[in-house]
Write a structure and sequence with these properties.
Elements: E1 24-32, E2 35-40, H1 51-58, E3 65-72, H2 82-91, E4 97-106, E5 109-110
Antiparallel strand pairs: 1-2, 1-3, 3-4, 4-5
């Protein structure tokens, strides 16, 4: 399900909220430290446009993973700046940050059906 922008978030304990970041939805796919790709929401391979994110992902020290998030560039106030992101995609592959929302796979474990970490632990690598 995609996030939906609303004026006020729904109440109650059955909701999990994501902050709306003004960027490009992206998935970092780590097959190994030497094989890291970044894909857009539409499936386009933007690995070369997100060199900084690829290098940061290499430092995660995981065997393999899929991380879902929003690639953003921030302004002087630290807020997402979509116009700056559009420029950076074509001219500065080190300008992006990834606001990670979900870890879909980690070290051979499919985490898509796992409850949030606060309710259920992430399986160990054993």
């Amino acid at each position: 399900m995609e996030p939906k922008l609303v004026a006020k978030p729904p109440g109650g304990e059955d909701w999990i909220h994501e902050i709306k970041l003004d960027g490009y939805r992206s998935q970092i796919v780590i097959t190994s430290p030497e094989d890291i790709r970044v894909f857009t929401k539409t499936g386009a391979d933007w690995t070369n446009k997100y060199t900084g994110l690829v290098e940061a992902a290499r430092e995660l020290e995981v065997e393999n993973a899929i991380v879902d998030g929003e690639a953003v560039v921030t302004n002087e106030a630290g807020l997402p700046d979509f116009a700056a992101l559009q420029k950076a995609v074509h001219s500065d592959p080190y300008a992006m940050y990834l606001g990670a929302f979900d870890i879909l796979h980690l070290n051979g474990h499919d985490l898509r059906d796992v409850l949030p970490v606060s309710r259920s632990p992430i399986p160990s690598g054993n």
